[in-house]
Amino acid sequence: MEAGFSEMRSELQSRDALWRRIQLECQQLHTELLKVREYKDMQEIQIKHQSSCVQLTEQLENKNAELLLLAQSQACQREELNKIRNHVYREEQSHCSEQERMKTEISDLTEELHQKEITIATIMEKASLLERQLKMELEIKDKLLAKQQLLDFQYKVIKSENTHLKEIM
Fold it and tell me: Coiled coil located at which positions (predicted)?
């Protein structure tokens, strides 16, 4: 019996050692399974990451294409803006030169008007002086006319007296 126990013990120890090895292998397999799952998860993450990278790359390419179109559009707009600026600058220059010409013309016309005002004032003074001279001459002529009429009257009176005296004689 002791040999049977010993054999059983040995068998138990052997099975116990086998059980421990099996448990150890199970743990190792479990660890490997975890590693495989981790690796699989990592691969899935990488696949998702790669898919995401592909999507991001496509989006980036689309954005680059949009940016290129915007840059071309901006270049066209800049060119158009420069044309408009040049046109506005030419118009401003034209407007400024027109204003200067008008200022010069207004200045010339103002000077001409001033000269005409001076001429009119001079003419008015001369006209006033001539009017006074005419009035004086008119008064003198009126006096001379009155004197002549008086002299005519006196002449007629004397002539009439002469005629009367001639008749008497």
Answer: 99-126
